């Protein structure tokens, strides 16, 4: 069984830290539905139990929407967890790019040994038919204040973790071209939740244009569809299309656990990814399962 670097997972201790989306009522709307099953501690022992048998040899922690008043507190907590439990080997922290303290927070995050990237989910519209390339929604990818904070990433040496639906990928392409020195890691395949013919065509076109930017990487993750079983047959079209567009050298697998546990088990997802990728040459499989993440997040095992 080829080794895996899980490029995107979460941990949380709801007794020690504040995560508003997991602790406040009513629960926020979420693409997978009810998030209340996630309202429990999820620590390294829980992750290892879920990942058992999948030959996961390293992991990357993704910021988990910790208390926005103190993003560095989450980073320090993750470093303590890593020192005590041996994972994660790298992490993505949080920074709020449209705030006045963005530059200071980016510098502080960059000084932390495990931090390789930062995430701030940009605002946008909920439906592709509402997308307007001329928009300047506050907090969006085209927002001047948001982009003013983003430019500090180039000096920090950190990557940017982008989570946005596919209809905002034209904005992401513009961002990548305007800041070619910053690597952008697209989370969750651009969220291709609409698997209708029209939905997949829109997603495919947006991804094809995004692939033109060399400073983009893609996480093959977070693609569960509520009410549908996670199977290799159902997920192969989007996974293999992303690999075709970006190449194995720019793609990496990730579990998005425990969040994706709302739609499927860890073994179902990672075993399914192995099955989908099995038709590719072994070198490409190794790259997607571990090599791209190892390089992107500078992981030394």
Automatic annotation (TrEMBL):
Gene3D superfamilies to which the protein is assigned, alphabetical: Metal-dependent hydrolases
Signal peptide: none
Record domain Amidohydrolase-related: where: 5-299
Domain of life: Bacteria
Transmembrane regions: none
SUPFAM superfamilies recorded: Metallo-dependent hydrolases (SSF51556)
Protein family: Belongs to the metallo-dependent hydrolases superfamily.
PANTHER family on file: AMIDOHYDROLASE, BLL3371 PROTEIN
Protein's recorded name: Thioesterase
């Amino acid at each position: 069984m080829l080794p895996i670097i899980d490029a995107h997972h979460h941990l949380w201790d709801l007794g020690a830290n504040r995560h508003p989306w997991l602790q406040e009522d009513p629960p926020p709307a979420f693409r997978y539905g009810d998030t209340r099953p996630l309202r429990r501690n999820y620590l390294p022992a829980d992750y290892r139990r879920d990942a058992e048998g999948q030959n996961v040899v390293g992991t990357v922690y993704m910021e988990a929407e910790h208390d926005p008043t103190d993003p560095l507190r989450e980073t320090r907590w993750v470093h303590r967890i890593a020192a005590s439990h041996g994972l994660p080997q790298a992490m993505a922290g949080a920074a709020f790019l449209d705030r006045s303290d963005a530059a200071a927070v980016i510098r502080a995050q960059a000084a932390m040994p495990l931090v390789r990237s930062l995430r701030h989910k940009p605002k946008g519209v909920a439906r592709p038919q509402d997308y307007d390339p001329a928009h300047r929604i506050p907090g969006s990818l085209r927002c001047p204040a948001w982009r003013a904070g983003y430019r500090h990433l180039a000096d920090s040496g950190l990557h940017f973790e982008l989570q946005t639906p596919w209809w905002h990928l034209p904005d992401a392409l513009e961002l990548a071209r305007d800041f070619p020195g910053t690597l952008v890691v697209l989370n969750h395949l651009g969220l291709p939740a609409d698997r209708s013919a029209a939905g997949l065509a829109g997603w495919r076109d947006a991804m094809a244009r995004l692939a033109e930017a060399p400073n983009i990487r893609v996480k093959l993750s977070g693609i569960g569809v509520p009410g549908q079983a996670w199977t290799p047959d159902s997920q192969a079209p989007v996974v293999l299309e992303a690999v075709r567009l970006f190449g194995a050298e720019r793609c990496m697998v990730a579990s998005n656990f425990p969040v994706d546990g709302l739609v499927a088990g860890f073994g179902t997802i990672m075993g399914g990814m192995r099955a989908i990728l099995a038709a590719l040459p072994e070198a490409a499989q190794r790259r997607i399962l571990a090599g791209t993440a190892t390089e992107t997040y500078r992981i030394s095992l």
